[in-house]
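User: My collaborator sent over this chain with a note saying "see what the structure looks like." That's all I know about it. Can you take a look?
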Amino acid sequence: MLYVAESQQGAGDQDVLDLANSQDAPLLTQDKDFGELVYRLKRLHTGVILLRLAGLSAELKSDLTARAIRDHGVRLAGSFTVISVSIIRIRRDQ
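Assistant: Without extra context I'll predict from the sequence alone. Here is the result:
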């Protein structure tokens, strides 16, 4: 696991997506701009998991994210996933 904010501070969104792709790893983010890269600009990705969990404690965010990965892990690869408090949306367009 790589924490880009520490290792690649100041990297642009496309660079972050390229890094995740080069490691064949899903990208876990709270930045909605990755939706634009994937859908409007049609950038390839190995999976993006967008967390829409603002206002929750770090512990609850972690629990919800871990549960989603545990329950849907295989389906998340190559998909654009949105995790919110009430729903998990998994969209695979590639």
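A starting point for your reply to your collaborator: The chain has four helices and four strands.
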